[in-house]
Amino acid sequence: MNTQELVALCKEEFNAAFGENPQKIVLSPGRINIIGEHIDYNHGFVLPAAIDKYVCFAISKNDTKDCHIISLDLNDEYQFNIHDKIEPITKNWVNYFLGVFSQVQDKIDSGFDIVFSSTVPIGAGLSSSAALECGFLFGLNHFFDLDLNKEQIAKMGQKAEHTFAGVNCGIMDQFASVFGKENHVIFLDCDTLDYQYAPADFGDYTLLLLNTNVKHNLQTSEYNNRRKECEAGIALIQNKHPEVKNFREATMEMVEDLKEEMGDVVYRRSKFVVGEISRIQELVKSLEKNDFENVGKLMTATHYGLSRDYEVSCDELDFLVDNVLLEEGVLGARVMGGGFGGCTINLLKKTEVENVIEKLSKAYQEKFGISLTPYQVSVSEGTHFYA
Ligand code: ADP
Ligand code: MG
C-alpha cells in the first residue's frame, strides 16, 4: 500500500465511523539507522533517517469529553474520557496513546476522534512505536495549542515508551521520526541532542531492508538487561577513571584493562559500545568521502559486534547477514533496531537489488520455512500534516 492509499483508507474509515471528514491527517514515519545500534542510551552518536513508511492518523477534535481511537490494522478500538485517571492497561497498543496523553492531560479540554493505520511493519525494528507516539502527540499539539517543539515531542514520546510500554529506550527512534528530512540522514549526538543533516547519497549503492518476519519475545526484557549491563560497565570504568563522564569518553584500553573485574558479559557489552561509538565516527567520515566500501565494512563489523558481544541477534538475522555478504555487489549488512528479529539493513549495488532479493528469499524460505519481506525505502520527511 502506498502513502496515498493509506491516507485514503484512513479518511474513508474515519467517515464511516464518525460521519464526516477528519479535520487533519498526520503522517509519522518509521526509521532506519545506518549505524550506532544500542548507542543512544549509551551517550554516543547515531545515524538514523526517517523513511517513507508511515503511521497515518485521521484526527478531529470533537465537542464532547470522550476520546475514541480506532486501530484499523488490529481491528480494535478504545474509548476514554478526558477526565479519566490514566494508567497503563493490558491492551498494548493503547498504552502508546495513553502514555502520551497522560503527559498533557491537564491541557486537553475536549475529546477527539482518531482512525489510524500504518505501513510501518509492527515490531520489525523500523520503530512503529515511536511513529505512533510522536504522530499522536503532533496531532494533539496542533489541536490543543500545546506549543511543543520537535525536541519536546520526541522526548515525550520516549517517556511514554518508558512509563507505559515498559521499554527503557533511548531517544533515537522518536528523534528520527520527528526530525527526519527528505534525502538526509541525521547525525545525532545522543548526549546533547545536537544534530546535523548529511546527504543520504550512496552513489551507485542503495539500502535494502530484509524483514525476517520473526520477533523473539526476549526483545523487551533483554533490551532492559543490556541497559543495566552497560550501566555496570561504565560504573566500573568510572571507578578507576573518575574523569570519564560516559562511554563516549571511555577507550578500548580502559575496557581491556578492566576485563577481569567486569566479568565476561559486562566486558563484551562494554567492548561493543566503545567499538560502536568509534565506528560511527569513522563511518560519517567515510560517507563524506564517498568511501562506500568502508561504510559497508563498518556496518558489517557492527553486525558481528551485536551478534557476538552484545548478543542481540538471532539465527534468522545471522543467516541473512552471512549469506547476503556472499552475493556480488553487497558492501555491508547488519541487524537493525533492538534485535532478536526484525530487519537487516544492507548496503548494495543498485543493479544487484533484484538478484539479492530473489536469492535470499529462496535461501531463507528453504532454511526457516518463512518468507522474507524486502523493503526498498526512500529517506523522507519527519512527522507532518498531509497536505
Ligand atoms: P517497533 O517499534 O520496532 O515496530 P515495538 O515492539 O517497539 O516494535 O512496537 C510495536 C507495538 O506498537 C505493537 O505491539 C503495537 O502495540 C504498537 N503498534 C505499532 N504499530 C501499530 C499499528 N499499526 N496499529 C496498532 N498498534 C501498533
Ligand atoms: Mg519500538
TrEMBL record:
Pfam family, one: GalKase_gal_bdg
Matching InterPro entries: Galactokinase, Galactokinase_CS, GalKase_N, GHMP_kinase_C_dom, GHMP_kinase_C_sf, GHMP_kinase_N_dom, GHMP_knse_ATP-bd_CS, Mevalonate/galactokinase
Domain of life: Bacteria
Segments forming domain Galactokinase N-terminal: 12-61
Keyword terms: ATP-binding, Carbohydrate metabolism, Galactose metabolism, Kinase, Nucleotide-binding, Transferase
PROSITE patterns per UniProt: GALACTOKINASE, GHMP_KINASES_ATP
Domain GHMP kinase N-terminal residues, every copy: 95-181
Gene3D superfamilies recorded: 3.30.230.10, GHMP kinase, C-terminal domain (3.30.70.890)
Enzyme class: transferase
EC number: 2.7.1.6
Domain GHMP kinase C-terminal: 284-364
Family: Belongs to the GHMP kinase family. GalK subfamily.
NCBIfam families (UniProt xref): gal_kin, PRK05322.1
PANTHER family: GALACTOKINASE-RELATED, MEVALONATE KINASE/GALACTOKINASE
Protein name stated in the entry: Galactokinase
Organism: Cloacibacterium rupense
